[in-house]
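Continuing from the previous page...

OK, I double-checked the sequence for Lipoprotein against my notes and this is the correct one:
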Amino acid sequence: MTRPDLALGLLLSTALLAACGQEAAVNSPTEPAPAIETPAMATPGVDSGIAGSGAMPGTGPTSFVGRWSRDVSWCADPAGNPRTLAITPVQFAGDGQRCEIASIDQAVNGYDANLQCQTGTGPRTERVSMTVAGQVLTLTWLDRQDDPVTLTKCTTLGDNSTKAPALPVP
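Thanks. Re-ran it with the corrected sequence; updated C-alpha cells here:
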C-alpha cells in the first residue's frame, strides 16, 4: 500500500466513523432517558414480573409513580401525611392505609390495578383505575360508587414545594 492509498484509507475510515451515531442523542444529566419502546411493550400479556402488567421487566408504568394530593399546598407536608398519596410501582400509601399493588393491567387510557390493602378494620381488596394527564392523576375506584378522585402531582416523592408543578411546554 502506498502512502497516498494509506492516507485515503485513513481519511475514509475517519469519515465513516464520524458518521456513526449522528442521530444518537444523549440526554443531559437533568433530563430522563426516553422510554424503552419495543414491540413487546405494545403486546398485552408480556410477563413483567407483576402479574398482568403487559410490560417488560423494568419498563412498567411509571406515570402514576410519585406523591399526589388533592391540594398542591399539602405537598409541603411531611411524607406519610394522610393528605398525600404516595404511589410506587408496587405500593399505594396514604389516607391511613397501605396497599400492595397485587397486579396491574394497561387499559385504554391508563392502568387498572388490583390492590391488597391493610386497614384499621383488616385486610381488603380494592380495584382502581389510574389515568394520568400531565400532572393530574384521576383515580376511579372500580368497586365503589364514589366519584373519581382528581389529584395533582407533587413533583417528586421528597418534594416540599407549595407551588403547582410546571406543565411541559408542547
